[in-house]
Design goal:
There is one protein chain. The N terminus is likely disordered. The chain has two domains: 169 residues, Jelly Rolls (Sandwich), CATH 2.60.120; 117 residues, Arc Repressor Mutant, subunit A, CATH 1.10.10.60. The two termini are 38 Å apart. By secondary structure, it is an alpha+beta fold. A hairpin with a 2-residue loop joins strand 3 and strand 4. The protein is built from twelve helices and twelve strands. It is globular. The strands form two sheets. The chain has a seven-stranded antiparallel β-sheet.
């Protein structure tokens, strides 16, 4: 089965690629060739019949895949210069080494770099892969080109990395359950933007660093107030963190440090809380939970309901019933 190749530079008006594709392999060379543009070779190290599989999902400017292997394999290769290739481990059972470093399921695997990569995978492993156009990543991550210059294991924020892994797995599950919505540009762009924000959040401590505890400066206070006013004026179409940086004329690192000092959290978490609070207020007059959530840009209702309950201690349907009566109850 032919699989989509690596992503091309994003075009906002281009039609998104269709839904999920999947293929299984019993030949190790066919598995290696399934990821087009990686220029890789596989050498089977453990004994027994080879089994592998690849699932792919294309978003604008980002190719996603899940590679599943049931034998220990030595992998070498290199990706195209304008594509940043990253790996989020789902399963690493057994000893592994990545670019000379001992395997670590809690680290981001950076496959990009002019010298290529080398990966001795364990007997059983599954990896979530991201192929991101470099210009797209540069809009969300400071020093993206330098970050992707060398293949290696990269330390990340553990909590945010776990959230990124869960988000990616649920993205594939959603596309498999109901492919139809993924043929529309809106869903694909929303998912892409949220993915990039979650990735930037996971990279935050290692790329941008966390500021030391200190008094809030006058400049930070002014920046925080401008950010709050700007987002409050367009909650129905909230900006991404990258857009917020552009509108405020600051780098992501500056915004990250400002938000951490002001609210004790990063921009992504702060934006989500603002939107969740806006949904809570809207539920006092909304016809349904779905109406309130979609008006504030929430597209994944499982994530929305979980985050709402975590923040407010109740399901959104409970908030709706309290203000609108039992007849207004809706699935949450």
């Amino acid at each position: 089965m032919d699989l989509p190749g690596p992503p091309r530079p994003a075009r906002e008006h281009a039609a998104p690629a269709p839904t999920l594709s999947a293929a299984s392999f019993s030949d190790i060379d066919e598995q290696a060739e399934a990821l087009h543009g990686w220029n890789q070779r596989y050498l089977q190290l453990s004994t027994g019949r080879f089994r592998g599989a690849v699932q792919r999902l294309q978003l604008p400017g980002i190719g996603l895949f899940i590679e599943d292997l049931e034998q220990a394999v030595h992998q070498t290769g290199h990706v195209q210069p304008q594509v940043v290739a990253l790996g989020v481990p789902v399963l690493l059972e057994g000893e592994s080494r990545f670019c000379g470093q001992a395997g670590d399921a809690s680290a981001l695997h950076v496959f990009s770099g002019r010298d290529g990569f080398e990966f001795r995978s364990p007997q059983r492993h599954a990896m979530l892969g991201l192929e991101i156009d470099l210009p797209l990543l540069e809009g969300h991550v400071d020093d993206a080109a330098d970050f992707a210059r060398r293949a290696r294991l990269h330390a990340v924020d553990a909590v945010a990395f776990g959230e990124l892994r869960r988000f990616l797995l649920e993205l594939f599950a959603s596309a498999a359950r109901d492919p139809a919505p993924w043929c529309g540009a809106t869903r694909c762009h929303q998912a892409r933007d949220e993915l990039l924000e979650r990735l930037a959040d996971a990279l935050g401590p290692a790329v941008a660093g966390r500021p030391p505890a200190s008094a809030l400066s006058a400049a930070q206070a002014a920046l925080a107030e401008r950010a709050r006013d700007l987002v409050a004026s367009r909650l129905d179409a909230p900006p991404t963190v990258a857009e917020l940086c552009d509108l405020l004329g600051v780098s992501r690192r500056t915004l990250q440090n400002c938000f951490q000092a002001t609210w004790g959290m990063g921009p992504l978490a702060w934006l989500k809380r603002l939107r969740l609070d806006a949904v809570r207020r809207r539920l006092k007059a909304a016809e349904s939970v779905t109406e309130a959530a979609t008006r504030l840009g929430f597209w994944h209702f499982g994530h929305f309901a979980r985050d709402y309950r975590a923040l407010f201690g109740e399901a959104p349907s409970q908030t709706l019933r309290r203000h609108r009566g039992p007849a207004a109850a809706a699935p949450h």
